[in-house]
Design a protein that fits this description.
Layout: H1 3-27, H2 36-55, H3 60-81, H4 94-123
């Protein structure tokens, strides 16, 4: 995939994560767990699994764990970064967490894409 196509895809992913976060805040109280991390993990792992099917184009036994690991890793790092309060007006660290989740998710997707490219070119 060309670099320009990947940049466009990542821009679409950023918009998707922002919209999905907005939906999460609306639907979050209806989800079964009271802990925010587990609700966010379930919600974003579903989104990441859908994106993994479209982005990696691999078998489901690979894409589902990859999507879940990416959601877990990016959420763990985002919650760790929420203590930094990136914008000074962010009193609770919510904007910092959302931005960090998007950035770490994009980094995870690029890493997964690079690994997929290395594996597929070695097997040929």
């Amino acid at each position: 995939m060309k670099v320009t196509n990947r940049i466009l895809l990542y821009f679409i992913l950023i918009i998707g994560y922002v919209l999905y976060t907005y939906i999460f805040f609306m639907v979050g109280p209806l989800l079964p767990f009271k802990a925010v991390f587990w609700n966010a993990f379930l919600f974003f792992s579903l989104f990441d699994c859908i994106v993994a099917f479209l982005f990696l184009k691999s078998i489901p036994i690979v894409t589902i764990p990859v999507g879940m690991v990416m959601a877990w890793l990016s959420l763990m790092l985002a919650f760790k970064f929420s203590d930094f309060y990136y914008p000074p007006s962010d009193a609770y660290g919510i904007q910092t967490t959302i931005i960090a989740n998007i950035v770490f998710s994009i980094l995870c997707w690029e890493t997964a894409y690079q690994i997929k490219e290395k594996v597929t070119h070695k097997s040929i």
